[in-house]
Amino acid sequence: MAKLRQGRTLIDKLITTGNGVLLFGHTSPDFDHQVLQLRVIGAQVSSTTNDAVGEMTKQAEASLEHLVWVGIALGLLGALAAIAMGLLLRRAGAQQTAQFRSLVQGASDLVTVLDDEGRIRYQSASVEAVLGLQSSDVLGRKLSDLIHPDDAVRVQGVWDELIQHPNSVARVEYRLRGKDGDLRYVESAATNLLSDHTVGGLVLNTRDITQRHEAEQTLLKLQAERTGLLEQTVHATEQERKRVAAEIHDGPVQHLTALDLKVEELRSRMGRGDGEGSVRILDRLQQRLQGEVRELRRLMRALRPPMLDERGLPAALLEHLRGIEKEAGLKCSLQSDLLERLDPAHEVILYRVAQEALTNVVKHARANQAWVTIQEIDGHVALLVRDDGVGFEAPELEESARRGHFGLVGMRERVEMAGGVWRVRSERGAGTEILADLPRGRAA
């Protein structure tokens, strides 16, 4: 820029000198000197202009080179940014893939991909926890090889229907066989992704529902037991009413009718003045009346022992045991550490459990001795009835319930409905123990 300013000054000077030469012409005494000066100034202008042009050229070349380096630098930065962005995207993709793999492999559900022929193309690692198998053990196999034969046809029908409808979903429950042949109940949600080129198969999300199935079966069994128990209770109630009515009719009613006839005979004898005969009839009447009173009391004790209301559970059980010893010849003992009366409802429950358990001992156990224990522990009252009889095995109890004998089931229902725990333990040849544990209820 300095050269340009110098060149502008010289040009102005050249123009002024040239104007002077033109103004005075050849007549001027300094004409030769002015012409020489014009030439010198012209040479200076030319030199300065050339220098300015060269300097501008150099500056342009330097600027261009700078721009080239700036472009190269920007290109390198862009390339580096692109590479860094690619690395970041690759790393993020790897992280997402690892997360997805971790979620699939770590899930408790089975994730399975089947081809259109039902062969396993992918199996998550959770198959080991559910079936005890490795993923490599099932790859390439048909899923139908693991399905219980009774379920295979039904499940295959679901797959065949699903294949006809892309992107559709179907649910089905069935049984899978594990490593040792153990059966697991499962539920699969299957999605048809055969048309999806990234999957190309049926995707099964399978959940182990064995515990749920067992709980449902247990619930159904309990419902069946309760239904049977209700029917048995209604039937037993009606039978008991018939039995009591029959006993009253065949016992007290008939006897009282006979007594009425004796009273008529007594009146007749007294009318004839037969004092001795009247006394004998009165003696027989008194004996019969005493017998009827005892029989009515026996019926009352069978229906509801007065001792239970008057003196509590231990006294009522002791009276019941004495009756069993006398009638059945079974040696019985009672041990109790209760210091206070229980809630009346709990006393009735425990009494009925002991009564039913002892009835079973007399009828079925072929025992020589029975022991009844009542203990109060940590706010609970435990009643234990055990014997030295022949005992039984668990399947016999279930078979007995199926045949409609609900004695033990009824005990359990009584106890569990009161918030307690009931348990039976028996072995063939080792006797039986029946435990009823209720929360402590105080007498009102």
Task: Let me know the number of strands.
Answer: 10
Order of strands across the widest beta sheet?
2-1-5-4-3
Write the H/E string, N to C. HHEEHHHEEEHHHHEHEEHHEE
Reported by name, the CATH topology of the largest domain is: Heat Shock Protein 90
Assigned CATH class of the largest domain:
Alpha Beta
Distance between the termini: 119 Å
Helix content: 55-70%
Summed up, the domain count is 4
Which residues form runs of ≥5 with pLDDT under 50?
none
* Classification by helices and strands: alpha+beta
Task: Give an account of the 3D structure.
With 444 residues, this protein is of the alpha+beta class. The protein has 4 domains: 82 residues; 102 residues, PAS domain (Beta-Lactamase, 2-Layer Sandwich), CATH 3.30.450.20; 93 residues; 134 residues, 2-Layer Sandwich (Heat Shock Protein 90), CATH 3.30.565. Helices cover 63% and strands 17% of the residues. It is built from 12 helices and 10 strands. The protein has a 5-stranded antiparallel sheet, sandwiched between helices. A 5-stranded mixed sheet has the order 6-7-8-10-9. Strand 9 and strand 10 form a beta hairpin. The N and C termini lie far apart (119 Å). The model has no long low-confidence stretch (mean pLDDT 75).
